[in-house]
Amino acid sequence: MEVILLNVVAGIATLLIGAVRSTDVVQKILHELLPRIFKKKQEAKKSYGERLAVLSDNLQRSSQQVDDILAELASVAKEREQGILTLEKEMEALQLHEKDMKQRIESLQNVPLPAVEHFAKMMNSTEKRKARRDYLLFGAGVVVSTVIAIGLKLLGFG
Predict the structure, then answer these.
(1) How many structural domains does the chain have?
(2) What pLDDT does residue 114 have?
(3) What angle is formed at CA 38 by the lines to CA 44 and CA 35, rounded to 5 degrees?
(4) Is residue 33 situated within a structural domain?
(5) Which of 30, 40, 148, 153 has the largest count of CB atoms under 10 Å?
(6) Which residues have C-beta within 8 Å of that of residue 21, sequence separation ≥ 6?
(7) Does 107 map to a domain?
(8) Higher pLDDT, 9 or 50
(9) Domain span at 146
């Protein structure tokens, strides 16, 4: 139908223009212009099936985008939940540590002051002995390693 209408309009235009232009040029121009004009009307006259197909395609793409967003939201929520669980575990551990420290402080508060001073003196003397022992062991290690190095050099290994 469109082709017949197009040819009729082209024929009338050719009759009107007459000798000024050749029919091929007019038909070419009309073949370019008329489809543009009728295309707007054709778009408006799409069948319900075509319109439904376009709409369902748009709906499917939109649905996929919503699904992607929901999946991302779920993963963020899971990450946040894991973070909260980790913080809760750390808080429980800190609460246990705090409770233990409070018990130790309470038990030390019940100890008489002279006993604490005596215990501190014992720890200081032990620390001094440990420092001397550490210096002796370090010096002995230096001497032994030097002797071994000299012995290896004399034997030709070093």
Answers:
(1) 2
(2) 74
(3) 135
(4) yes
(5) 30
(6) 14
(7) no
(8) 50
(9) 112-158
Query: Which band of pLDDT confidence, cut at 50, 70 and 90, is reported for residue 158?
Result: low
Backbone φ, ψ for residue 157 (5° rounding): -95, -10
- For CA atoms 89, 90, 91, 96, the dihedral sign is positive
Higher pLDDT, 60 or 7: 60
CA distance 70 to 76: 10
**Residues 9, 34 contacting (CB under 8 angstroms):** yes
Q: Say if residues 26 and 17 touch (Cβ distance below 8 Å).
A: yes
Residue 129 CA neighbour count, 13 Å, CB half: 6
32 is written with which tokens? 């370019």
Q: Is the pTM of this model over 0.85?
A: no
Note the Cα 157 to chain centre separation in Å.
Answer: 58
Predicted pLDDT at 19: 46
